[in-house]
Amino acid sequence: MSNVFDGDSPTNLAEYSVSELSGSIKRTVETAFDQVRVRGEISGYRGPHSSGHAYFALKDDRARIDAVIWKGTFSRLKFRPEEGMEVIATGKVTTFPGSSKYQIVIETLEPAGAGALMALIEERKRKLGAEGLFDATRKKRLPFMPSVIGVVTSPTGAVIRDILHRISDRFPVHVLVWPVKVQGEGSGEEVANAIRGFNALEPSGAIPRPDVLIVARGGGSLEDLWSFNDEIVVRAAAESRIPLISAVGHETDWTLIDYAADVRAPTPTGAAEMAVPVKAELEAQAAALAARLQGCMNRQMDQRRQSVRALMRALPSIDQLLALPRRRFDEASAGLGRGLELNTINKRRGFERVAAHLRPDVLSNRIAERRQTLNERMARAERMVERLIDRSKSRVDRAETILASLPARLKSQTDRGRERLGNLSRHADTAVRHQLTRARAELSAQDRVLQSLSYKNVLKRGYAVIRDEDNNPVSQAVHLSAGMGIAIEFADGRVGAMTTEGGTPPAGAKKRSAKPAEPPKQGSLF
Fold it and tell me: How far apart are CA 423 and CA 143, in angstroms?
């Protein structure tokens, strides 16, 4: 400060430079307003600057003051400032000499009252509810008996110990803890990341995927629980594919995550009770059901046993059931021998009737008829072939005549006709060969039948045929007299012989004529 007296100056006022004046004002303001509490509405808030500092303004209906929160202070705030929020800021007022402005440097920041926070919560609740994040249809049922439980909470508080102790007492299962901050700057992001991290686990991965999630925190003020009202936390809870239990605060504390969760627990201990059943109760219930089942089975067996006994009393004895079948069996066995004898006699008679018709002359007549038929068919086939050949030759002649009169236009037709003629001739030859083959096969079959019935096959077994002087077969000794010349036919030839004595005819037998009558011919058996 300069104290030089200027004789031309009308007053004795001291003269200051701009810097000196601005510094003096700065010191005066900071000394006078070193610690103040200001109530106002946040205006112009855009979040932390790239440097980490936050710049905005506090205003009421008549005035406005700039405000700044330095980076170190901002990280210690219990809740994040938002545009339009009414707050109470504690700090000191200072000036900024570079622009002749004053501002308040905020050291602590708290909501202006529960009413402001509740109004903010209600506004956010209406917004998220309109998107359907709180619909009851989106709620998932909790698994009855989970094998893995995921817990999102602080690893150092009493909450995690209460949950683990309660789960261990009721039904010990595998518990995975995702440690997070449950209040302060960045706690909302950590809770949301933990929920999404559990959902991102693979069911068959190295870290098992939980069957149910518990998001827990102990009781506190509305500001302490403010992280669980963050929009990012509510959206993560609503998007969770794993059933989620919200256990934030005490029974009277409500946060927005409670509306988005599938189930709300009044306390963290209550969440553990909802997550798992009581193992002892399940064992007792299973034992009671097993006892009831055993009792039902015993009663059912007693009822069935009584029913079987009643049915046994109503059934007849074995002797009564088998009396009639035994009688029928005895009658059938008594008539079995006689029935077999009668059946044998009937079969023998039928065989003799059939054998009486199988004589060599009948077969010879049949073979002769078949030979005649075969010869007639062969003759017809030859005539047919000749006619076909004649017709083919006539066609060829006509074709040659036409070809002689026509130019080369008809030569192709002649070639086709000749080819067809050749095919017909080949087909005719093939048909004749097939017919002759079938006729020869049929004749061979008839000849085999004749040979099988020929008396010469009998001679091969050691028998002989006696013939008289007229070469007629002699079947009885009475037909021969002493001194008669006979011929004995064996399988390999004949020999002559002379009888020494004649046969004695039986009583009542007529003398056989020298030449037996020729047996009448019999028709075909076929």
Answer: 88
